[in-house]
Amino acid sequence: MLTDWFPSRTLAFYLARLFVTRILGVLIMLVLVLQVLDLLSESGAILAHEGNGQAQILHYVTLRTPQLVARFLPYSVLLATLFTFFPLNQNSEVIAMRAAGLSAHQILAPMMATALVVSGVSFTFNELVVTRSTAQLKAWQEAGWGQVPTGPEVRSNVYMTDGTNILAADTMTGAGAAIEMTGVTWYGRDSNGTINTQMRSPRAVYANPGWRMEDVAAFDTATARTQHLPFAVVARALTPRQISITRVDADWLNLFALSRSINTLRANGFRTAELDGKWWHKISGPLAALLMPLLGSVAAFGLARSGQLLIRAVVGMALGFTYFVVDNMALAIGNFGGYPPLIAAWAPFLLFAVVGEAVLIRSEE
Question: More exposed terminus of the chain, fewer Cβ within 10 Å: N or C?
Fold first, then answer.
């Protein structure tokens, strides 16, 4: 029964091979061009930090490339669909397939199967590679392109409150009692919110209770004097558990870690609609590659000599790019509470799946 959906073995492998080579070619081209453009804007800031050189530029490329691959893989599948179907139609190969009794769905089936494999690879790549590189790149960027923080669960620009007081850190690594902060600033405020004490420290660790700041520069706003202390313990009511839920970034958490963070936030009474939407989008996002052959298939059918082949290719490209616009818009609306998270993540995919299938059935007729 499954073979009824596919053409012959030879033709299926022929179409799949054409599709895969064009996906890789377009992806490599896009990543190279965009990486060069990205380096033009970021290399100056990286090299401006003392001690940075070619090694740091190459390290930036290794961290940035996975993000570019993940972001533009669906676009590559869309363009590869057009680059595959356009010459097949122009050379009358699609006409020959239809004359042999193949339906539009059978012609498209090998490419849909290939796109499904690409979606699976994209999901795995996002979870295992992109999340880690994103976490390191954000921490490095927010540290001013200095030394990259190392350790599990790296976070940057952490901001926490302890009553009216504020504890902020440039970076935070580790989890639980092993949390370590760098670039730490403590703002002691009165009941009116006025800052009366400011303490700065290069490092802070958990002191159970409180957080031990080392080599402290304490500024008293009342006397306008700065005092240097070997250490100071602040935020005694702030626990590692509270810190762990102060900031959750879905971009650098895999699906399972994000699930744990959402459950923790929900148990402590925090709103999780935005993170719920991003959790679902971690699944629906990679499946965008599965839609691209369906949306771009409009370029495959129709007589090349009718003069509308280029128009069909443009329509297929427009459908694909419209999907990405609607997908981002739905996710943004969901973040503001306009849509439930499940609908925000899946509605664009289902909508354009119906649109793509309607176009394909119309082509079949």
Answer: N
Question: Looking at the domain assignment, is residue 253 inside a domain?
Answer: no
Mean pLDDT for the chain? 84
Lookup: tokens for 201: 């420290």
Write out pLDDT tens, residues 88-123.
887 878 888 888 888 888 888 899 999 999 999 999
**Helix, strand, coil share (%) of the chain residues, nearest 5:** 65, 15, 20
Distance CA 211, CA 347 (A): 45
Q: Would you call 316 helix, strand, or coil by DSSP?
A: helix
> Do residues 95 and 48 share a domain?
yes
In a domain, 265, yes or no: no
For residues 66 and 175, membership in a common domain is answered with no
Q: Which residue, among 191, 193, 194, 187, has the nearest Cα to 218 in the 3D structure?
A: 187
Q: How many domains does the chain have?
A: 2
The per-residue pLDDT for range 175-228, each reduced to its tens digit, is: 777 788 888 888 888 877 788 888 898 888 888 888 888 888 888 888 888 888
Neighbours of 220 (CB within 10 A): 13
Q: Pick the closest to residue 118 from 29, 249, 26 (CA basis).
A: 26
Residue 241 belongs to some domain of the structure = no
Domain that holds residue 70: 2-144+272-364
Q: What is the largest CA-CA distance in the chain?
A: 91
Q: What's the predicted TM-score (pTM) here?
A: 0.76
230 neighbors 217 (Cβ within 8 angstroms): no
